[in-house]
Amino acid sequence: MNTLGPPAHSERPRIAAFGGAKGGVGRSTVCSEIARSLARSGSRVLCIDASLDYPSLNTQLHAEELRLDLQRVPALGTKDAHIADLIVETGYRNVWLAQISPAQKHPFVRGIETADEIMAQVHELDFDWVFIDLPPGCDTFPVSFFIAADVPILVSSPEPAAIRATTQFLRASLYQAIGFHPRAFDLQDDLLDTLDDQRIDLNRESFLRAAPSAESRKVVVETLERFETYLIVNMVREGAERDLGHVLSHALFVALGTFPRYLGSVDFEDRRWFYNRRTAGQTSSTRGEEALSSDIEHLARYINDLRPIDLKYPRPAPRSQEAHPALRIGLAQETGRNEIRQACRRLWEGYRREASISLVFSDPERRLQVADQLENTYRNILTLQSEPVTKQEIESAGRDEELREKKPTPADESGGIKKPAAGKLISSLRRQRQMTLQELSLRSHIGLKYLAAIESGDLNVLPRQVYLRGYLREISRVFGVEPDELIDQYFRFLDEP
Q1: What are 227-244's pLDDT values in tens digits?
Q2: Nearest-angstrom CA–CA distance, 14 and 406
Q3: pTM, whole model, 2 decimals?
Q4: Containing H/E element for 310?
Q5: What is the pLDDT of residues 317-332, one digit of tens each?
Q6: Are 180 and 148 spatial neighbours (Cβ–Cβ below 8 Å)?
Q7: In sequence order, which ranges of 178-238 are alpha helices (DSSP H)?
Q8: Is 352 helix (H, G, I), strand (E, B) or coil?
Q9: Partner of 109 at 20 to 30 A CA spacing, among 24, 43, 330, 335?
Q10: Cβ atoms 479, 338 nearer than 8 A
Q11: Which residue windows does the record flag with biased composition (Basic and acidic residues) (predicted)?
Q12: Burial bucket for residue 495 (CB in 10 Å: 0-12, 13-18, 19+)
């Protein structure tokens, strides 16, 4: 969670800001649907449409467009103005909406309101979550919200223009974030000189090179470490684009010095279908009842409890070549060797495949240089001392579960037979990697129904053997274990009387 903004407090809402410099990447859709997912689980969520020119979040949430009489309600930035006056109900239970643009004194003219003033008012509200849908652009107003949020989330699509815009938005955020450091006021002359020397392709090295003193360089480094952001890739169309988020996060770290945690991706076809249904008014008779995709539910669970993500991807990530390879690519040091190896290979393949990643760097040749460095890192990973894997790890997991399950095979309520020892083999491997069933589903592209059946050994639901072998092979790929050994062990358990 971001530690650069105001400290978190149990009596104020948690604030997530969805930002990025490019329009059309689906920030409003992602914001509104994650809000609906959290609301369904009982959270009270306020969505703030921070656009000053073309608010649209009300169409996503089935809310009337706010119209204010500024003769009676003070405009934002004036005396006695408060964002609580802008809150309206939506078509969804536990979700409210506030729009900033109708509270401007003059249309299309930036008022005197600041993000700091609005954020201070937001902290006084009685909600569990406040989601801020930021407008595209890199100017001070949206970027200030992003820096001060508890959970700053970059939303990008896989297209090159969006990658470029996401990079520039993060550059703009780092440029302003230096002023949020606790020592910024004491060192303001040095820091102003540092910022004055930056150009539109600023990066970590340009900050450090321009800093005139050791104290100002320390402020720059600490700002990059304390500004913890997250990333969602929206509108993905194929498996390779799902991995793009890992590569983009790493590239931003290499170029700018801050390492976004990748939360996941959202499928393109699902998002287009849901958006078209809602905006076309085809769901007016069943408002609040539309289904949410598994991608959205997955992201909502992560955002509601960030601790597993923060533990899995510890920040700040060290840059030293002497540091543990897992930490250098953004993973926890306790991660298994095979998972580290797979993550490194995924990054290497992404850098080689995705030419658009060059847009993150000031020097386009940097992309292939990083790929070569990752190849060396991969060799170092192969020499790491590894925990038991492949056959030994699988047999050990199977023995542990056999000892726990020394009792007759139970029948389920429908009369079907379950083979718990077979399924516990998979669940044991999953727990060793601190992975949820939902995360395994996302990474293996296997439905939750079949994963649950595989783990419970439910013979009524398990697919035919030819498909089950394919599923087990995909699971072994995610776990980083020998597929033939896993398949043999699993079927051995199934064949036991």
Answers
A1: 999 999 999 988 778 889
A2: 46
A3: 0.76
A4: helix 307-312
A5: 998 888 899 999 999 9
A6: yes
A7: 188-196, 204-210, 214-226
A8: helix
A9: 24
A10: yes
A11: 390-410
A12: exposed
